[in-house]
Amino acid sequence: MGRESEKPGRARPTPLVGREDLLAGARDQLDRGGSVLVHGPAGIGKSAVLRALAAEHAATAHTVLRCSATESESHLPFLALADLLGLVAADVADRLPAAQRTALESALTGRGESTLERDGLALRLAVLSTLRALAARGPVLIVADDLQWLDPASTELLGFAARRLGDMPIRMLCAARTGSDPRGPEHDRFLRATPPDTLAVRVGPLSRAQTAELLARRGFGALPRSTVRDIHRTSGGNPLFALELGRALAENPVPPGPGEPLPVPTSLRALVLNRLEALSAEARRTLLVASAGARPTTALLHAAGRENAEAEIARAAALGLLVTDRDSPGVRFTHPLISAALYAEADPEERRSAHAALSTAASDPIERARHLALATEGTDPRVAERLGEAAAAARERGAPSVAAGLGLLAARHTPPDAEPGPSVWRLQAAEDALIAGETDLARDLARQVLADASAPAERVRAWIVVIESAGHALGEVDAAYPQALADAGEDPRLLALVHYQLAWRATIYEGDFAEARQEAARAASLAERAGDRRTELMALAFQAQAETLMGHPDAPATIKRAMREPQDPRVACDHNGVGAARFRWLIMSDRLAEARTTISALLREVRRRGMVESEVHFLRGLAETELRAGHCARALDLARESLRLARDTGIGQAAAAMFTSLAEAAGGDVERAGALAREAVSRAEDHGDQVYLSRALGALGHAQLVAGDAAGAVRSLRRVRDLEEQLGVTDPARGRWHGDLAEALVRVGEPAEAQRLVDVTRVRASALGRESVLAVLDRAEALARAARGDVDGAVRQLSSARDRLGRLGYGLEEARAVYALAGLRGRRPGAASYEEAARLFRRCRAVPWLRQAEAQPVAEPGTPTAVRAGASPGAEALGGLAATERQVAALVMEGATNREIAARLFISVKTVEATLTRVYRKLGIRSRVDIVRLAAARRAE
């Protein structure tokens, strides 16, 4: 407990991982003078949220009262009350009636026999009077952690006072432990100890990406992604559990093997297993069998020999270990950690016995094979064979991660001299892990194969996994290429594999599309000679992609070659396969409807097959299609989904950040667009990735243009121009940055350079038939014309560009043309209006552009837009504000906070603050209070 004087600023602690939205809602409530109850299960981070909020808002309180209860002290009466009021009661004691003062002193000091039964009314009124006296001196903040352990007497007194605080400047910030069920009503009883308008905020689990960020912040960032995935699954997203598991893994020199549980530290075992003592030995065995099963049911437990499963499950559910559902036969632990701790607590023989029972009870052949392997000690060729068959079945079902785990078990049960040997199983597991997006596991397994294998085919395949697991950071594995070529020898099939990878190296690492095309063509020729249709198709698809980006005339013919029969189904839907090449050609050729159909079908197929890397790419491709069509909200949702998946898997993060930046600039937040673009630039530079560096700089330049930083856009987009010249990219439909650069050049006063850029780009676009690019170039050229004084010509050219973009289905680009036309209205009345541009931006849900259109003055040219200097702001002054400024001012008049205004208008708090600054300047006032006074004056009129 303590008291603090008012401070000028608000302290902001280190940001909490994954709690931004939760904190924002709680801050709004506290800013309005309300109270907050933070609740959730043990270890979820309630106290961390409480501390963060308390640290921020303590500076705004004159008095801060604190208490934090513990279970061991919850039987001591008035202990929490003493923590809260013990050091401040004396300061206001003279304001309390004698009876109240005596009762309170007795309760706080323990000197006397004060009880709720004897002095109930006096004590209740004493607490209320004390809080009122403190509030009379200034705002009071009450911070109470672990409400569930408050002694009943303190809880009753605090609740009595809280229900009677009324309009007093007293806020309560409390935290309480509630159950794992988010729908549970437990927090209702804690709300009775807080004011009636208290906001109850539930703290939920972290996502996998947030768990990874938390572990990295606490020094466990070196853990493999597959391990982080297991930690997230086992912890259920609980921060405390995740950190304890991460610490146990970091301290364990030997990582868990395939099928082995995570090491659950003693602290967590004690936390979740103490309730097991109330179960019989047979019931604990039943729960062990359930923990060993993938999807345990009552029927499965019966088949595994657990005759009394129903009664034992009911008993475990009563103890809070299991969740039962009348409508579902499944057996579910209340938290994944209970299952993991139970399994880890069992000795090896008990685990093998449970798996042996499940190996015959499970109906799924994949599950039966897995349980058989975990029940078997040592090597066994028959078990390895069954595991190989199960891995193939999992692969066919679209579960490559499961297939990888089964392959590892097969390698463990394969004798060293068997055929196929352990390396074959590890290699297949590595390739499955790569497909599943578990790149770190794939790389580690490939390294193991290279350490043991001598067969050229195995070694070359392993080198390919090492290279592909590096993603775009090919500089880190540059030494692998000559070694792979040496292992390939003169074998055309193996050489084709290596030259296909060299084509990627030439593109990403060297930034040379011409060399990349040659390497891809060489790989296709070698694969055709070796009869390896799969590699031939991949190489032809790559060649087609390179030719498309280069504007090479052979691109359509190469795509046709790649689409000839026979086809390989996996290549057809691979993100580097012919389907992806055809999609890229379609979208660059302005065939948006066909592009959407193609990419949607590819996305469905890779999801069915569990091809995570391809899913990341195709989500981004579908987002690109929607963005071109002007469906900005849909594009933003898809781009964000792609980015989340990329961050979770570590696959294609630069590309995902780059395109999400474009989507944010079109339909989201411009500041976030700039941050994502800079992240993409940084990642591409770190990896030496010239291809995505140019794309990332293009996204950055676009974000800068939308944000109004024309000079920054010119700097970024000039770099893109230089990089694409080095890469040999001549097709302007690849990055579509040319119109943005020309527009930015006009804005900074360089219309001549803008015109030269338009002239050069138009020649290339005309030769390739890129109609949408030509229309955008016309829009940019019209701005250059207007800058030179040819307003009539500019209007004609913009009108034509608008119509063509509308016919092509490029909704956002059409709206931008109308917006440019509206900018010429003052110089040629009737050209267009900002209202029309706003309507089109609203249809596209292009939020940043819509804000720009609405911010423009709505009055006719020549109408004053600000109050005359020295004039008192009257009602007529609001007419001179832009649309967004009027909306913000109106909400201020209603009493809304900046955060509430931001939420209602879908803008950032910073934008609200900047808009208010403009409103103050235009109205000749200084603060929000003056706006409220203006509102009162209008009502009086």
TrEMBL record:
Entry GO MF terms: adenylate cyclase activity; ATP binding; DNA binding
Domain HTH luxR-type: 874-939
Organism: Streptomyces griseoaurantiacus
Entry-linked SMART domains: AAA, HTH_LUXR
Cellular component GO terms held in the UniProt record: cytoplasm
PANTHER family registered for this protein in UniProt: TESTICULAR SOLUBLE ADENYLYL CYCLASE, TRANSCRIPTIONAL ACTIVATOR DOMAIN
Full protein name: AAA family ATPase
UniProt entry tagged with the keyword Ribosomal protein: no
Keywords, sorted A to Z: ATP-binding, Nucleotide-binding
Cross-referenced Pfam families: AAA_16 (PF13191), GerE (PF00196)
Cited InterPro entries: AAA+_ATPase, AAA_16, P-loop_NTPase, Sig_transdc_resp-reg_C-effctor, TPR-like_helical_dom_sf, Tscrpt_reg_LuxR_C, WH-like_DNA-bd_sf
GO terms under biological process: regulation of DNA-templated transcription
